[in-house]
Design brief:
Radius of gyration: 21 Å
Structural class: mainly beta
CATH superfamily: Exo-inulinase, domain 1
Distance between the termini: 44 Å
CATH topology: Jelly Rolls
Strand content: over 45%
Number of domains: 1
Number of helices: 4
CATH class: Mainly Beta
Largest sheet: 12 strands, antiparallel
Shape: globular
Oligomer: single chain
């Protein structure tokens, strides 16, 4: 059928021009969709901002906080970056949901601390703000907290399976490729899974985070080192596990001044083989 069509169909010049124009637009759209700078280097117009609960002991700062003071674009050493105040629990969230992607983030801690240097890269986020701790959407967290970079934390009704080895605490588990596959959630062995190893750089230096999400698998890579693999990512609704394969991306304000110089995303067709060896 295809050969017959092209052998007998001779489009008029105007039709051919229109076809070329449409095909060009399709190619451009594919390129834009396959790779994207989530931070455009200018402003935060493609993000939503939600101010949540105060940080314990810093209630007065929360009263003064605004969207603009909590998340803003600043220029340091000639480079524009996102500055996160950390003085209130808040969310910077993409307006769009993403699935089957590789996200690359570059960040470092500032000098100001409100309790502890805490933040997170929250993926597969869905639903309204405020569901998790009065601030964030339901999500799975790639922990960015100082000394815990790469951990997993399951917020609200999220669930996953991970190969782990038990630590000293009753609900302390460390990711281990050779470990036992266990379920994690609010009701299954706890919400937290510790990273396999510490790959964080000293305070004041830039860290890189690479998050690979494909289907129900999520892989955390810190400064080039794999530290976590979560599988069968799901959400629990009415007692049933529903596959969780996509969602918005949130960046937390949660106790520590924080700078982000790059956050970009690209579509992937599979988890890179070298990560699964």
């Amino acid at each position: 059928m295809g050969q017959f069509f092209f052998a007998n169909f001779k489009p008029k010049p105007t039709i051919m021009k229109n076809l070329i124009f449409i095909l060009t637009l399709c190619l451009l759209s594919t390129a834009t969709f396959s790779q994207k700078q989530l931070f455009n280097g200018k402003n935060l117009k493609n993000w939503d901002i939600f101010l949540g609960t105060p940080i314990s002991g810093y209630e007065d700062l929360a009263k003064k906080a605004t969207r603009e003071s909590t998340y803003q674009v600043v220029k340091i050493d000639g480079n524009k970056m996102i500055h996160i105040s950390g003085d209130i629990n808040a969310s910077l969230a993409t307006k769009t949901e993403y699935e089957n992607y590789h996200l690359h983030l570059e960040f470092k801690w500032g000098e100001k601390v409100y309790g502890k240097r805490n933040s997170g890269l929250l993926y597969h986020s869905y639903g309204p703000f405020g569901v998790a701790f009065g601030t964030w959407m339901a999500n799975i967290e790639h922990q960015l907290m100082h000394d815990n970079l790469g951990d997993t934390y399951l917020m609200a009704n999220t669930w996953c399976e991970t190969n782990v080895k038990k630590g000293d605490g009753e609900k302390t588990f460390f990711y281990s490729p050779e470990g036992k596959t266990m379920a994690f959630s609010e009701t299954d062995n706890g919400r937290s899974i510790k990273k396999m190893k510490d790959a964080e750089k000293p305070l004041g230096e830039w860290n890189t985070v690479d998050l690979f999400c494909f289907g129900q698998t999520a892989i955390h890579v810190v400064n080039g080192q794999l530290v976590m693999v979560n599988t069968n990512c799901s959400k629990i609704e009415n007692g049933k596990k529903i596959p969780l394969t996509k969602g918005k991306i949130q960046l937390q304000s949660e106790g520590g001044e924080f700078f982000i110089r790059k956050v970009e995303i690209e579509n992937i067709k599979e988890i890179p083989v070298e990560l699964l060896r």
